[in-house]
# Entry
Amino acid sequence: MTSAELERRIRLWLWAFIVGLVVSGATALPLETELKVLARLAGEGDSGLAVWLRTVRDALIDTNARYPFIAYGTDWLAFAHFMIAIAFIGPLRDPVRNVWVIEFGMIACVLVVPFALVMGAVRGIPLGWRLLDCSFGVFGILPLWICRRHIRDLERMKAA
# Structure
């Protein structure tokens, strides 16, 4: 594989990761609307997921009505996703010099798992939902791991 092909693949995987961060962040903004839709799709059954979604929907509607400033926390969550996505512009420009950003992202992905499991338990989040949150770290690390591998190959090519 040529260095140009490696750089193209690195950029493709980085863009996939960046888009994932931006989409994930954007979903933190219209939470009430999203939960209304998800609860409607889950139906009025007694499944654990349907009951959980209705509970969260009702709590969010009540909280937003009585204490709308609490949603400011998820606004900042979205902002953090957007800012982290911007950090990955460095590796898009110069992947070898900015490999540390990829490694930072990989560390963050690994840390998602224990954080979601521990803090989710502390907050009473059902295990299935915590595992869904863990999947962001598991699936997020894959494109970054591929990028890191390609960057190391590119670094060796340029050194030779």
Notes: The chain has a mean pLDDT of 95.
